[in-house]
Automatic annotation (TrEMBL):
Pfam families: P-II. GO terms for cellular component: cytosol. It comes from the Bacteria. InterPro entries: N-reg_PII (IPR002187), N-reg_PII-like_a/b (IPR011322), N-reg_PII/ATP_PRibTrfase_C (IPR015867), N-reg_PII_CS (IPR017918). SMART domains: P-II (SM00938). GO terms for molecular function: ATP binding; enzyme regulator activity. Gene3D superfamilies: 3.30.70.120. GO terms for biological process: regulation of nitrogen utilization. PROSITE patterns: PII_GLNB_CTER, PII_GLNB_DOM. Belongs to the P(II) protein family. This is Nitrogen regulatory protein PII.
Length: 112
């Protein structure tokens, strides 16, 4: 099993969720996040004052999937979240030793 953590633009969340749902990904965790990479934040003018924001709003999406689906899930995330601009995000992949469904006690792929 693999865990995928994807940091994406907030406006791309619905597209990514639909694409993953089409692939049979049944569950995911979505969190609001803030951060920066090569963008280094942004500058805006508010009431005549220049305000520099170093942290940009992002979405952190987490899914655990069987190892056999890893390539198609990653491709779907990239295809639906890519704009070609700085700030499109990152994908991190981790090995998962085991998964246990608390309600039933199922282990492994059956718990997904």
């Amino acid at each position: 099993m693999k865990k995928i953590e994807a940091i994406i633009r907030p406006e791309k969340l619905n597209e990514v969720k639909l694409a993953l749902s089409d692939l049979g990904v049944d569950g995911m965790t979505v969190s609001n996040a803030s951060g920066f990479g090569k963008q280094k934040g942004y500058t805006q003018i508010y009431r005549g004052q220049e305000i520099v924001s170093k942290l940009l709003p992002k979405i952190k999406l987490e899914v655990v999937i069987p190892s056999g689906k890893i390539d198609e899930v990653i491709d779907a995330i990239i295809k639906t979240s890519k704009t070609g601009e700085f700030g499109d995000g990152k994908i991190f992949i981790f090995d998962v030793v085991d998964t246990i469904r608390i309600r039933t006690g199922e282990h492994g792929d059956a718990a997904l």
